[in-house]
Amino acid sequence: MSRADWHREVLRASQSREILFFVHGFNTSQTTMLHRLAALEQGLRKHGYRGAVVGFDWPSDGNVLAYDSDRNDAKKVAPYLVTETIGLFLNENPRFKLHVLAHSMGAYLTLRGFSGVGDAPGARKWDVDQAIFAAADVDVEWMRKGAWGSLVMDRRSNRLTNYYNGNDAVLQLSGDFINGGRRRAGRKGLPDLVEKDQVDVDATQRYAAFPQKGAQISHRFYFGDDGFFKDVALTLAGTAAADMPTRLITNGDAVLKA
């Protein structure tokens, strides 16, 4: 399919002038990516989202032992998320609302892509409306107010919503061993000091109520959880964080209802 034909197909798939780009994570085969993309689209449609859902399929090896290789590939292809994907829809008239949902290492790719592509001379600043991280395999301290990750997402998105599971066994391994003890935002949440439009959502109780358990499931259960899909649909619709009926506020923290 040519780029022009693909562009037309995406526009045709959107019934609400919105596009959600899904960025998969580490150890994800193309077959798995397509299954998760379909689950995401079906789950969002159930809760009223009518935009297009598009997968950004970067070259993960689909091998649990290929973490470093996948991370290097994610960094290499990250700019194409902007230049060859999001960028193709920035100048539609009337404008489209563009969103990104990144899972696991896909959040790292998104950070690298958003930080590596600047604004064209004379052009308006490019950005997306809603940026969503689920099980983000990125350093917590990157997201502290004033740190590079926080600054990038503040400039390139209207709001960042970070879903985390305190019992994510995959990110426990990633943080404690692979990344030298550096905490992961998808397991520990955002730092205590963030920009005003960067929001944490604790999904630990949702996982506790999920019918299946296991190390891998603790990292990917989002794609089978209707409560997550409902919350994401409301987020994409622009619902204020304080007005989300899918969340409880506990000790000042937003918790996804079990």
UniProtKB/TrEMBL annotation:
Keywords assigned by UniProt, alphabetized: Hydrolase
InterPro entries, per database record: AB_hydrolase_fold, DUF900_hydrolase
A GO molecular-function descriptor: hydrolase activity
UniProt keyword annotation of Hydrolase present: yes
Signal peptide, first to last residue: none
Pfam families (alphabetical): DUF900 (PF05990)
Keyword set includes Hydrolase: yes
Protein name in the entry: Alpha/beta fold hydrolase
UniProt organism field: Sulfitobacter porphyrae
Lineage of origin: Bacteria, Pseudomonadati, Pseudomonadota, Alphaproteobacteria, Rhodobacterales
